[in-house]
Amino acid sequence: MCPDVLEALKSVVQSFIDHEPKSPLHIGEAMSCWTYLALAAETHVQTEAGMNSTTDPELRKALHEAITMFKSQKERLSEFMRKEGVPSPPLSESKPISEPNHVPLGVRLTDIELANSLKKKVGMAISNCATSSSQTLRSDVGLIWAEYLQELIAFLTTFKSLLKKRGWLKVPPPYYSSGLPKEGR
């Protein structure tokens, strides 16, 4: 679906939500928010550190997009939780900008490590949002997870293209069933 269609759908859903009486968050919804905020905040900070370790322009662009996405999600969810009275988890501070070539080799992650680490974290975030969405009762909370899922999937689709192009995507070996005929392989 194109972004305009998704925005229109979001507006329709939001119009129903705005007239719905709000019950308090149940403990699972509060825990999902708390857990996702911790994940988004740590991914944001760790991706900032990754920016300090690479000079690759395409990877830097992708890392910057991820930083922007997770920072925005962190800020929106923090504000929602504040309004709902849910305490925030302890959050790490942003990393200062540093020169990638000055990071010692024994500390600096390779571009492949940075890319696959971010891919795994985005995958974890997608799983977390999907699970949280399935457990929520309040429509406004469900909409938060739907927005985050849409953002994460859009990012990951583009990001995986970069990983494939560079040969960085870690792919498990093919599985062949022992009963599969040899010509089917």
Question: What can you see in these coordinates?
Answer:
There is one protein chain. The chain is mainly alpha-helical and 185 residues long. The chain has a single domain, classed as Ferritin (Up-down Bundle). Helix content is 65%, strand content 0%. The chain is built from 5 helices and no strands. It has helices at residues 3-17, 27-51, 57-84, 111-135, 139-166. The longest helix has 28 residues, at 57-84. 24% of the residues are buried. The mean pLDDT is 90.
Task: Sum up the structure in keywords.
Ferritin; mainly alpha; 5 helices
Helix fraction, binned, reads 55-70%
Task: Name the CATH superfamily classification.
Answer: Ferritin, core subunit, four-helix bundle
Strands, total number: 0
Structural class per helix/strand content? mainly alpha
Overall average pLDDT: 90
Strand content: under 5%
Shape: globular
Helical segment count:
5
The main sheet comes to:
none
Task: Quickly give the CATH architecture.
Answer: Up-down Bundle
Q: What's the gyration radius in Å? A: 20 Å
CATH topology: Ferritin
What is the H/E order?
HHHHH
Write down the domain tally.
Answer: 1
Which CATH class applies here? Mainly Alpha
Low-confidence stretches: none
Instruction: Tell me the span between the first and last alpha carbons.
Output: 34 Å
Question: TL;DR?
Answer:
The protein has 185 residues and is mainly alpha-helical. The chain is built from 5 helices and no strands. It has one domain: Up-down Bundle (Ferritin).
